[in-house]
Amino acid sequence: MIFTQVSKVNVHHDVIVPCRKGQLEHLQQFITIKEPDFNGEFATVQMVYGAEGNRIYLLGLGEEKDAVKVDEAFQKLSFNYKKYWKKPVQVITEGFTDTELQKVIIGLELSAYDMGAFKTKKEDVKALTFEMVSSKDVTSILKEAKAIGETINRIKTLVDAPANQKTPEFLGQWAEASAEQGHYKCTVLHQEELKVQGFGAVLAVGQGSANPPVVIVTEYMPKKGGTVDIGLVGKGITFDTGGLSIKPSTNLHYMKSDMGGAAVVLGVVELVAKLKLNVNIVGVVASAENAVDRNSYRPGDVIQSYSGKTIEIIDTDAEGRLVLADGLSYIIKEFQPKQVIDLATLTGSVIQTLGYSAAGMFTNNSQMAQTLSKIGFDTNERVWQLPLFAEYESDLQSDIADLRNYSGKPVAGAITAAKFLEAFTDAHKAWVHLDIAGVSFGDSPYSKMKSASGYGVQLITNYIKQILDE
Ligand code: BES
Ligand code: MN
Ligand code: ZN
């Protein structure tokens, strides 16, 4: 998509005219009908022809409360009508705040997302041009929003990619290519190096797969002095069969998306570097395929994690917390980040708890919780806090090792998973865990089956911008 700015409406071009519910006065400059059959209901569209045969799209923005999802209205409109657009399409942007305009551009950019990456017959895709009609200079907003939209599309491509393509090594190559393009640092620790450095949990989860595990370390450090402002850790399970504690086959194909947390981490570091934000950021992705094989790790095995702590494996399907444990210990020991956020499609339990409407948030840091909650509402990538009470710890006590990876009881699963992770944060004072199992991948109006949502890129990027201001 190409976004440009123009100062005047060109009556020969198609034009998108956003309308808030019940506020239709400004329509009179575009249409002659006195009372159009349209009231501005959210994401509704009324197309009318202009005097020059051009198309005028009245786009409903709904009410005040719908402003946080104005991107959705534009995405839907563009997705449904882009096939008719041969010439630049104008967008009336008068009345939008800068934040809303950013969402408008992101929504339009997201409508370019192509799910059919593996179809042999390619649709004829032509870059669309949108002309933003605005009297003030919005070029920097256009540029930034386009970069955000493009990054979201790139991580959706990753999450939707099939597991036979996106092996752990493939994620490593993706990160290396991104780092080279974006002039930041990327190191991929391959299996042999993981053995040398003692990533026992990542290795255990990955040992049943022909595709060896990796740990990806990305660094964007524009500030002087090595202090890392924020460290991100992502769960990068490229396919989760459950291992020997095998999952049922219903919907198993969706477990290709078990690297949604990793995708957010890779996307955010790429975006922060692209936007040249003045923040020192490190992203760590712990990636493995949880497969069934004679070499698979077993229930009952005891493994030693990167931290040195030993873990008794009760259920090989609780693999995400294992790879994250190593990722968290590693980032905290190697980089001492001032703040740490991990993202993971960690539990089915968080879906039982919050459904598809918010990520589960776990932290002892009320400041971070508050800021993330607020930004979650503003970006419409919501988080909802759940507790880390000490009582839950007893669920993780093992008779034979330092901890076990599952209590064996189907209660408070998202919380006990978070408690497990907490044991590997070295009591870090500014750690947040986001369980994104319900929000990272799901139903979409643009796909027949579940697909990647892109959740998290805006939440974390805006959070990082926020701490820049502090
Ligand atoms: N990747 C799954 C969690 C998941 C489930 C993500 C559904 C997205 C949709 C995770 O590795 C898992 O299997 N969790 C188990 C843990 C249990 C065995 C302790 C779960 O939540 O059932
Ligand atoms: Mn699992
Ligand atoms: Zn998993």
Task: Briefly note the CATH topology name of the largest domain.
Answer: Aminopeptidase
Number of helices: 12
Number of domains: 2
Largest sheet: 8 strands, mixed
Physical arrangement of strands within the biggest beta sheet? 7-8-10-9-13-17-14-15
- Which superfamily, in CATH terms, is the homologous superfamily of the largest domain? Zn peptidases
pLDDT < 50 stretches: none
Shape: elongated
The CATH top-level class label of the largest domain: Alpha Beta
Mean pLDDT, to the nearest integer, reads: 97
Beta fraction: 15-25%
Over all CA atoms, what is the radius of gyration? 24 Å
Descriptors for this entry?
elongated, 19 strands, binds zinc ion, six-stranded mixed sheet, Aminopeptidase, 470 residues, Leucine Aminopeptidase, subunit E, domain 1
Sequence-ordered SSE layout with sheet pairings:
Elements: E1 2-6, E2 14-20, E3 45-49, E4 55-62, H1 70-81, E5 89-92, H2 98-110, E6 129-133, H3 139-160, H4 168-182, E7 185-189, H5 191-197, H6 200-206, E8 214-220, E9 230-240, H7 260-274, E10 281-290, E11 302-304, E12 310-312, H8 320-335, E13 339-344, H9 349-354, E14 359-363, H10 366-379, E15 383-385, E16 403-404, H11 413-422, E17 431-435, E18 441-442, E19 451-452, H12 457-469
Parallel strand pairs: 1-6, 2-4, 2-5, 5-6, 9-10, 9-13, 12-16, 13-17, 14-15
Antiparallel strand pairs: 3-4, 7-8, 8-10, 11-12, 14-17, 18-19
